[in-house]
Amino acid sequence: MAILRAQSISKQYHVGETIVHALAGVDLTVEQGEFVVVIGPSGSGKSTLLHLLGGLDAPTEGEVTLAGHRLSLLKDSEATVLRRRQVGFVFQFFNLLPTLTAEENVALPLLIDGRKLGDYRQRIEELLALVGLTERRHHKPDQLSGGEQQRVAIARALVTEPAIVLADEPTGNLDSRAGKEVLCLLRRAGNERGQTIVMVTHDPKAAGYADRIVFLKDGRIAGQTRLATGGDTVPILERLAELEL
Known about the structure:
By secondary structure, this protein is an alpha/beta fold. Helix content is about 35%, strand content about 30%. The chain has eight helices and ten strands.
């Protein structure tokens, strides 16, 4: 079952009198439970693609269908509710509220959606355990390491049980050990919770955790490959070399 489908999406920006083609005719389908990584160099359109897939921006041309909803047909208020309930976002710089504890940051999407926290205590407990932060639940972001903050961000992204999690360079601001922990958590979310994940990265090692890799070059899909086993970067490096990425 397809959770996400992008059909011939393009995105153009005007910079002064110059038109910048960030994406050009991208087609992408993501099935339920898939862990898809979009890899490409800086400027290839990765983050732009992720923003369009999550409804944070609208394509100049083409259509995105998310959890059965055509985004172009939604009112702004409807799109906001859809993002809040069906999409979990994980960003490079964590985006935690500094005045809230780890537990409160995880619960925040539920509060924003007007839900009673008492009904979701077990889910919050399970997610804190999943990310290994049960004992750090009362710590605020400035009391947590970068890796711990990103783990809070992952738990926050999962708390509404979204149709899909979109991760934008989630290891880009972490050292190698913390980055590996974050990638293992995302992989576990896919394996154990059936979570659908789309992650963009420029790092072949990070891409090795995926089920399927999409190679992006100059705003277009240059190729795709499916990994038989997670963590194997050899076919990724070979494909990158073939595509001159």
